[in-house]
Amino acid sequence: MKTLALTPSRRWALPALNGRQRLGAALLALLLAFAWLVPWLFDADPARQQLTRILQLPSLAEPLGTDHLGRSLLARLASAVQLSFGMALLSVASAAVPGVILGVIAGWRGGWFDRVLGSLADACLALPGLLLVLLLVAIAPGNFWALYVGISLVLWIEYFRVVRARTRILIASPQLEASRLLGFGPFYLFRRHLWPELAPQVLTLAAFGAASAILAMAALGFVSVGLRPPTAELGLMMIELLPYYHEAPWAMAQPILVLFVLVLSLNLLAGRDPR
């Protein structure tokens, strides 16, 4: 009887998507296509004011209308999606890489290294995540990088705790012990035994983390402690358009709808069918 060995490419392959995840991926792809194609197809500056065209209804010239300063909502929404997704991607990558590496090392080695990192993670959890972000933003108001650092510091803890707990279980498995007795090194053991089991959980955390980063950024913008005008950011757009919801409810609804679809797509992408 022939036995099928996993090729290296299949060991590193991403898990297959289910129906909900495909829907989330499709919604996210549509939003990203909108965000990156609009600047190419429409010559509109998201910060340019046209005070003679305030709160105009959607038209051929302005497909989504204009805001209270005559700025193109189409251009501003596209710029806001780029900014939100860029922040989420950067924060998740910066949190996932150290979180996974430290989680694997702590779960594998144990001892004082595990205790120190575990205590550090517990100390970070004792401080509400949004409060930590607010403290950093207060030091550098309106600064993109302060917001990015704050969100990344909040997100890494989940990767560390989940990966550490899972690694502790996996290193005691008979398969890994057999490979270790055969003389295979740590990198092979990680690639062959740990990563295939960790990847689905890490990717799920990444999708949820991206959604959390986008919501945190929008929440800070909505209470006017995040990025500053004239930056096109979803939460900031909501608070700017809020005084005009009677005159232009369609304008107020646009950043809300975009934020809803963006977060929904990531949550659907994170969802997995129970095994």
TrEMBL record:
Record keywords, A-Z: Cell membrane, Membrane, Transmembrane, Transmembrane helix, Transport
Q: Where in the cell is it found?
A: Cell membrane
User: Where's the ABC transmembrane type-1 domain?
Assistant: 81-270
Residues that span the membrane, as ranges: 83-108, 120-139, 145-163, 202-228, 248-270
- What main location does UniProt list? membrane
Topology in membrane: Multi-pass membrane protein
The protein's name in its UniProt record: ABC transporter permease
UniProt organism field: Billgrantia sulfidoxydans
